Amino acid sequence: MITQSISFDKQEAILAAALGLFIEYGFHGTPTSKIAREAGVAHGTLFHYFKTKDELIVTLYNSIQEGFTVYLSEQTKPSASVVDRFKDLFYHSVQWAVDYKYEFYFTQQFRHSPYFKQLGAEPILQPGLYQSLYIEAIKDNLFKPLPVGLISSLCVNQIIGTYEYLVQSDLSAEKQKEIINEIAELTWAMFVKLETL
C-alpha cells in the first residue's frame, strides 16, 4: 500500500513538473532530464512511468481532460433543460480556464501540436457532455441541423475568446460572471433555429 502511494506521488510529481516546464519552454524545449530534475526523481525513474516523452505528453493531456470532465459533471444538472445545461457548461468551461490557467494553456499547446491529430482527440474543452447535448438539441429541433463537429469548433472558439478577454481585462468577479453569461447567451443564439428564439 505504501509502495503504491509513493509510486503515485512520483508519477504525479513528474506530471506536475512537466506541466510547468512545457508551458514555459514548449514541448521541444523541455528535455526529459529537466522534467526529472524538476520532479525530484532520477532520469531513469521518469522512463519507468512513461516510456517516451510523447507518452508523457499524451498522458498529461488525458489527465487534464479527465479532470476537466469531472469538474463539468459536478457543476451541471442532468435534469436541467437543454438551454440551461448549455449555458452551465459554457459558463463553467470558461471558469475552469480562469481557475486552472496552466492546465488550460497546456491544452492550447496540445491543440496546436501534431499530438492532437495523432490522438484523434475530441475538440479541446468539448468533452462528451457537450457532444451529447448538441445531438439532443438537434434531435429536439432546437438547433439548426449543423454538423456536430462544426458546433463544437465554434463553441470552443467562443470559450477561448471569452477567456482571453477576461484575462486581459481588470474586471470584478461579478462583472466577469456577467460577461460569461452574456457570451453564453450569444453562443446559444448562434445555433438556435429562428422560430425557437
How would you portray this structure in words?
With 197 residues, this protein is mainly α. The chain folds into two domains: 1-51, Homeodomain-like (Arc Repressor Mutant, subunit A, Orthogonal Bundle); 53-196, Orthogonal Bundle (Tetracycline Repressor, domain 2), CATH 1.10.357.10. It has ten helices and no strands. The protein has helices spanning 2-25, 32-39, 43-49, 53-75, 82-99, 101-111, 114-119, 128-139, 148-168, 173-191. The longest helix is centred in the first third of the chain and has 24 residues, at 2-25. The chain is elongated.
Counted up, domains total 2
Give the CATH architecture of the largest domain: Orthogonal Bundle
How far the N terminus sits from the C terminus, by CA atoms, comes to: 57 Å
Number of beta strands = 0
- Biggest sheet, in brief? none
Structural class: mainly alpha
Please tell me the overall pLDDT.
88
* Spatial shape: elongated
CATH homology group of the largest domain: Tetracycline Repressor, domain 2
Radius of gyration: 19 Å
Class of the largest domain in CATH?
Mainly Alpha
Give the helix proportion (percent range): over 70%
Extract low-pLDDT stretches.
Answer: none
Indicate the proportion of strand residues.
under 5%
Treating each run of at least 4 consecutive H or I residues as one helix, how many helices? 10
CATH topology tier name of the largest domain = Tetracycline Repressor, domain 2
Helices and strands, in N-to-C order? HHHHHHHHHH
Multimeric status of the protein: single chain
